[in-house]
Design a protein that fits this description.
12 strands, 4 helices, 16% helix
């Protein structure tokens, strides 16, 4: 005899909340779509580690694999790094409210390039995250996005600054100048969607 669960499903967010993600995978909810990704490349992880090490722990919490709650969005992204003031008084739980976040970092991989430059850019802007840093080891540059504006899919950042690997990236929201000279690169890939 087969048991059938006949309880109604109330939405993707409920499914996502109860989703069992296989070991070595990561899952995100992006505008109602559940996206699963395999483990990251060593170059990817080394860049995240380098950025984290350059952000002073005394003033900033630097969290990896932390989900963010975006108000008004059916999205719970999990950036490669979430930075918020150490003084922020947050309770326990899986989700950090986007208004408490100061900066998010995404390191681009060959399978995340379109999401990192496209949908996540819009999602983080819709959540009013003050700074979104994209580090792209295939293009060998970093893109710092600031001044979020708008809502929903029309949200975007007003200011965009691109810096090649080797050039410093001023993270004014954190009072830090990011040294990119030790960032490694990966073979290029072609982007398919809007930047």
């Amino acid at each position: 005899m087969t048991a059938v669960d006949e309880r109604p499903i109330t939405g993707t967010a409920k499914i996502f909340e109860n989703l069992e993600v296989p070991e070595r995978f990561k899952a995100e909810l992006l505008r109602g779509d559940i996206v699963m990704m395999a483990g990251r490349d060593r170059v990817h992880n080394a860049i995240v580690e380098s950025v984290q090490d350059q952000i002073p722990r005394k003033h900033w919490s630097r969290l990896q694999t932390q989900d963010i709650a975006i108000p008004g969005e059916d999205s719970e992204p999990q950036p490669d790094l979430v930075v918020l003031e150490r003084a922020a008084k947050l309770g326990s739980g899986r989700l950090i409210p986007a208004p408490d976040v100061t900066l998010v970092l995404e390191v681009v991989s060959k399978t995340s390039v379109d999401r990192d430059y496209g949908v996540k850019r819009s999602i983080y802007a819709a959540g009013s995250v003050p700074a979104y840093l994209i580090i792209d080891p295939m293009e060998q540059h970093g893109v710092l996005l600031t001044e979020p504006a708008g809502s929903g899919e029309c949200a975007d950042y007003r200011t965009e600054r691109t810096s090649k690997f080797g050039d410093p990236v001023p993270l004014e929201t954190l009072g830090v100048e990011l040294d990119t000279s030790d960032f490694e690169s990966l073979p290029p890939v072609k982007r398919h969607r809007r930047p």
